[in-house]
From TrEMBL:
<keyword id="KW-0418">Kinase</keyword>
<keyword id="KW-0808">Transferase</keyword>
<dbReference type="InterPro" id="IPR006282">
    <property type="entry name" value="Thi_PPkinase"/>
</dbReference>
<dbReference type="InterPro" id="IPR053149">
    <property type="entry name" value="TPK"/>
</dbReference>
<dbReference type="InterPro" id="IPR007373">
    <property type="entry name" value="Thiamin_PyroPKinase_B1-bd"/>
</dbReference>
<feature type="domain" description="Thiamin pyrophosphokinase thiamin-binding">
    <location>
        <begin position="155"/>
        <end position="214"/>
    </location>
</feature>
<dbReference type="GO" id="GO:0004788">
    <property type="term" value="F:thiamine diphosphokinase activity"/>
</dbReference>
<dbReference type="InterPro" id="IPR036371">
    <property type="entry name" value="TPK_B1-bd_sf"/>
</dbReference>
<protein>
    <recommendedName>
        <fullName>Thiamine diphosphokinase</fullName>
        <ecNumber>2.7.6.2</ecNumber>
    </recommendedName>
</protein>
<dbReference type="Pfam" id="PF04263">
    <property type="entry name" value="TPK_catalytic"/>
</dbReference>
<dbReference type="InterPro" id="IPR036759">
    <property type="entry name" value="TPK_catalytic_sf"/>
</dbReference>
<keyword id="KW-0547">Nucleotide-binding</keyword>
<dbReference type="Pfam" id="PF04265">
    <property type="entry name" value="TPK_B1_binding"/>
</dbReference>
<keyword id="KW-0067">ATP-binding</keyword>
<dbReference type="InterPro" id="IPR007371">
    <property type="entry name" value="TPK_catalytic"/>
</dbReference>
């Protein structure tokens, strides 16, 4: 098993914009990359080798699978096709077991809404384990928070910041430095008041007493 690493990238098999992904890998300087099943196809196309490959390989190009099997230095975690979790969830939990303090999931959005929602729930599970996790694509960065969070305007992911309650109402929300501020507000699961806010100050401050929030930074 590899030494513990703090920041891990998990590449899943959803839609990935190549120019975005290649730049993201370079900027984030990941020390460890896990390919979840067909996520390996993107890496292979652009000449990159993952540190680990996880999956049942039921949706992978056999030629890509064979090419990686011939390479040294790759760890393998082979799953049974009949299993209770997705390949992405297995890869993410493996990243957690490796001691990750921060996990970025790319290729976890796309045409399959069921998979995307499941991946958002994964962010909540990781948050419970004390791990910062992000679901990222070319237009969105998603995280689940359970405490006061600051987003600096100069480093925000896009123009918009949306807030949604995660698994129940969130009480005592106060927003500062944003176009639409709130003061001691309760956000329940039936309202969309938290959608499409914008940072107007140097930073946005998100505070709340109870619950968890899905934070979506997005750009058109």
């Amino acid at each position: 098993m590899v030494q513990k690493t703090k920041k891990i990238l998990v590449i899943s098999g959803g839609a990935i914009e190549a120019s975005f992904m290649l730049k993201y890998i370079e900027e984030q300087q990941f020390r460890y990359i896990i390919a979840a099943d067909s996520g390996m196809e993107f890496l292979y196309k652009y000449g990159k080798k993952p540190d680990m490959i996880v999956g049942d390989f039921d949706s992978v190009d056999p030629a890509v699978l064979e090419a990686y099997r011939k390479m040294d230095g790759i760890e393998w975690k082979v799953l049974r096709p009949e299993k209770d979790d997705t390949d992405t969830e297995s890869a993410v939990q493996t990243a957690a077991e490796l001691g990750a303090e921060e996990i970025h999931i790319v290729g976890g959005t796309g045409s399959r809404l069921d998979h995307m929602l499941a991946n958002v729930y994964l962010l909540g599970l990781l948050r419970e384990e004390g791990i910062s996790a992000y679901l990222v694509d070319a237009h969105n960065r998603v995280q689940v928070i359970d405490q006061r969070t600051v987003i600096k305007r100069e480093t925000q992911y896009g123009k918009y910041v949306s807030l949604l309650p995660f698994m129940g109402a969130v009480e005592g929300i106060t927003l500062k430095g944003m176009k639409y501020p709130l003061e001691d507000y309760t956000l329940d699961h039936c309202h969309s008041i938290g959608i499409s806010n914008e940072i107007t100050g140097e930073q946005a401050e998100i505070e709340f007493r109870t619950g968890r929030l899905v934070v979506i930074e997005s750009k058109d």
